[in-house]
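Format notes (please read before filing issues)

Several people have asked whether sequences and structure tokens are stored in separate files. They are not. Every record keeps both together, in the order shown below: the sequence lines, then the token lines. Line labels are part of the format and must not be stripped during preprocessing.
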Amino acid sequence: MGVHEATKRNFGAKLILSLKNIGRSETHWYLICGDYIDCLCFISIDCGSNEDYIDEQTKIPYISDKELIDTGIVKTVSPDSPRNIRQHAKNLRSFPQGTRNCCTLRPEQGKNNKYLIRARFFYGNYDGKNQTPEFDLHLGVNEWKTVSLTNDVPYGVHYDIIHVPLMDYIDVCLINTGRGVPFISALELRLLDNSIYPTQGRALTRIMGYDVGRNPSDSDVRYPDDGYDRIWNPLLFDEWIPISTSSTVYSLGSDNAYNIPDVVLRTAAKSQNSTTPLSLYFSPPDSLSQCYVYFHFAEIEKLENGMQRELTILLNGERYLAESGSSLKTEQAIMGERLHFSIIAAEGSKFPPILNAVEVFVAKELPNKTTSIQDVEAIVEIKKLYKLTRNWQGDPCVPRENSWDGLHCSYIYTIPSIISVNLSSSNLTGKIAPSFSNLKAIESLDLSYNDLTGPLPEFLAQLPNLDTLDLRGNKFTGSIPEDLLQKSRDGTLVLRSKNQQYSYSEVVSITNNFETIIGGGGFGKVYLGKLKDEVQVAVKLLSPSSNQGYKEFQAEAQLLMIVHHRNLVSLVGYCDEDDQKALIYEYMENGNLHQHLSVKNTNVMTWNERLSIAVDAAHGLEYLHNGCKPPIIHRDLKTSNILLTGHMQAKIADFGLSRIFATESDSHVYQASGNFSKKSDVYSFGIVLFELITGWPAIMRGPEKNTHILDWIYPIIESGDIQSVVDPRLQGKFHTNSAWKAVEIALSCVPPIASQRPDISQVLAELKECLALEMTNASLATEHNIAPSSIPLETSYLELESDIAALAR
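Then the structure lines:
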């Protein structure tokens, strides 16, 4: 039975499928794995079984999952279940804990090979509730199927999918959606020939496979009859005439990799006569689903005088799908609410149409990209080395809502990558693993309060993006590598290798008896300080009047010390001694954003600097919202809480403390309401963005009344005069296009209804594009010696659009 490329042209023409008389042979032509199925072709896992065994009917070896997964609970189905259920349905693994639980398959053939993956589920009232759950099934980072079980399915359900993995492993994950506890009975993998069932970068879900002409009361056909262990259900309608042969059917063609079982081909159905069609109806999951249908034909009747049967196939009465040979597959996706296939005798043919077997697949898109392979391999090795018991299941970063605890990932570029690892207080022992050196995008690494030993490795200083390293509370030996110390001295790395709780006398010493005041606010005064290693710090001595929430102070301070990001002001330590409370922060040489935007400041920030500060602040807020679990709501985001380093890098300060201490009196102008949430922070960020754009404060004081910045700016925006919107001190040194984009981003943050505001991650992505656009146009203006604002809008987009993504940082 040969399978050839599907015809994709001349659909209006009449196409002929010719079936020649077949020969006879005593040799089966399809692949039999035989003694090699346990190591080369198949992986079969009985979830919940205590031992390995060989299935009595199929002779397929099944292995227990007890050494393959460290989460879930083993359960046994109810004694009231049907007695003749298969061995793999008698036990199961239930997952009452965690949102995502995964089993990882590692076929010997590895990546870029084609596999049939089958997940089996038999509820069997294992929990005594007699209430079947519903949950999602994922193939790696993408949705596969919603598992919906009903009590009228006595032997459970199975789902098949064909997939070509891009890595050497395949994760099959169960997702708790709040509609019952997920479970799984068995998981199976079968190696396929790469030439069959083209996937074209997607997966194919097999929704049916029918052995046509077999009595519906007969059992299914699978391995060992089918070398790929596909499951063929019997199909025969009343108006069809069953035909069969006892002889072995073999292929006359060379393309027989589909290996349709001989026992399936030996049965077929034909219509009453040559003028009556064989009709089949399929209903896809929805009208937009892309379906692929495979018809399999073999002549099993001896026709007179060596004649051959000629067929034509119609789809919904219009499209003709057929080809020369003995099988047909539709490489072209077909869609519709209902698919009606008619197999008819070709014009002039006196033999009725026949059909031996048919398969239907639905294409499953795989839109989510997996985390960087290098990052995955590194973090999995770290998990294995330190024997971490955290529920680190599936992909570390994707889907975002199921990212691993203690990790923060960047989703700005095409491939997600790990930028923060927090393994504080995780019972780590031994040396710092070399695998950390492969996390090239990492910005923050927290290994504090473990039992790590040995010298600090040199590779830590070679991580290009690492700006926060917390090593407190371990048992390291030897000296700190000079490269690490140098990075700490020049301010490119926040390095902690010592206890962060200070006595009040130490605070007095650090500040030289509170000699130099550098700021103040509702929390108290801020003093300049210097640690023993000459590193400058800012010491915030909390005012006695801010006594609200003192009992929560230590727990909150300890929490904030493990929150690290390059765009968050680092908490170096704290003092909690009787009534003396102090917070010790890294020193920010250039003060706060409010000071730099003030009309009193003669050193006017450039438009590029303002956009860079906006991107930095958005990075920090995105980490608080989406990188911390549980999320941290700032509650008091404003220009005075955005501090600047000597290199004008922006960092957010005072996050997480405003809920236990009184905030400054004017903070309400940054809030749309008194309800604090992620979206209230986004509103505040929008106000900050307008201040950066206009140079005006959030509240403009007047002799008779005060004006909110939104009340002032809305009419100007409506007039379409961008020059009147942007800070006049810039003297037009900005590009109109990037300025309008910044205004649009700010507007998106401040709708009065919170649900209409975007997530800060979306705001960040838009701001990066805005900054890239300005950088590109500035470069173009410099090259041609023209003012940025004079570059035509259409020129910027048409000539520079392709460079924007590459320039975004």
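For reference, the curators noted about this record: The domain at 207-364 is CATH 2.60.120 (Jelly Rolls). The chain has five domains: 34-192, 207-364, 373-499, 500-587, 592-807.
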